Amino acid sequence: MKYITDFASGFMGLFQTGGKTLISWMTSIVPVVLLLLVLMNTIIAFLGEERMNKLARASSKNVVTRYLILPFLSAFMLGNPMAFTMARFLPEYYKPSYYASQAQFCHTSNGVFPHINPGELFIWMGIAQGVQKLGLNTMDLAIRYLLVGMLMNFIGGWVTDFTTAYVCRTSGVTLSKEVKLTAGTAE
């Protein structure tokens, strides 16, 4: 009987700990995420959706803006998974590379910008808790993670360009490098 009650106590303790963690997030990280979302929506409303779309089209013209600046701005303004929608303004040839860069960026920015990927915030919080126990500053780690992530995400996007070129060449598929707009949207 002791084993059953110990198991039941441990099982309930797991949920009690989860509840305490949730409440601590409700007074710390959740308000920050909500305010960042409000800021993001305010900036988009102020700039206008058409200006955001023009920015995405202009960003497709060179490798730095395509895999460094556009993914950063998309993730910051739209969050995950909406950041992927900016690829609609890119030529078909660059969409796989943008996706590679964007998917990685949505993970490497949580420490500084938790609103980008709140679904994976628990991973960052676990890492941050270990760093705090060592007496280190979590923001130092978050900034380093962001900067290394931006560099690696850029490289990942650019390498995917070469992979796309190889696949196109070996399979005989031709993807357009031009944006074709029809009725205000990109194909």
Automatic annotation (TrEMBL):
The keyword Electron transport does not apply. Keywords: Membrane, Transmembrane, Transmembrane helix. It comes from the Bacteria. InterPro entries: PTS_IID_sorb. Pfam families: EII-GUT. One of its GO terms (biological process) is phosphoenolpyruvate-dependent sugar phosphotransferase system. This is Pts37C protein. It comes from Loigolactobacillus bifermentans DSM 20003.
